[in-house]
Amino acid sequence: MNRYYIEKDVEEVTKLLASLHNTARVSRTHMARELQSTGLYAGQESVMELLAAGDGKTLGQLAAALGVKPPTITKTVSRLQEQNFVERKPSETDARQTHVWLTDQGRALLEQMQRAVRAAEARALDGVKKKERKQLAKILAKIDANLTGAELPKERKKPPAPKKKKKGAVRDA
Q1: HEC assignment per residue over 69-112
Q2: How far is CA 34 from the centre of its chain?
């Protein structure tokens, strides 16, 4: 392979990854704008959603579920607590553990927060067909797996469609 093509491929990959990075940044900025009306900052909605699905998670469980380091989740939960959206309670069984619970104010905010998230998602994917979304999801999963070393789930193949009988075909008796 000639050097020109290798350099051209490298340049294409560099532009592609720069575009991916920029799209992620713009997406986070847009999400932050949509969430402003709720009083939440980008990233806090993920904690709220996890707690809405099951209150009483530990800081470690939240960090693991979101793929962030414990100090990051501690800071996020502290801000949510200052806003009176969550509260921390010590574990009844392990004095080293703290569990996080949504407050009544936090629960009341969930619907407004979900509307803001859906609006941001709808804007981002406007005009992107369902098939394109599936392709994008597969490509992003591959990139993520390449960068994290995670295994991709095996694709389930559709069973082959039954063969159609030809008209006028004679069956063996």
Answers
A1: CHHHHHHHHHHHHHCCCEEEEECCCCCCCEEEEECHHHHHHHHH
A2: 17
pLDDT digits 0-9 by tens, 11-27: 888 898 899 999 999 99
Structure tokens at 27: 């997406």
CA distances from 46 to 22, 32, 133, 142, 144 (A): 21, 12, 21, 23, 19
**Per-domain residue ranges of the chain:** 3-146
| Protein fold of 3-146 | Arc Repressor Mutant, subunit A (1.10.10)
Q: Report pTM.
A: 0.70
pLDDT tens across 106-164, in order? Answer: 999 999 999 999 999 999 999 999 999 999 999 999 998 988 887 877 766 666 666 66
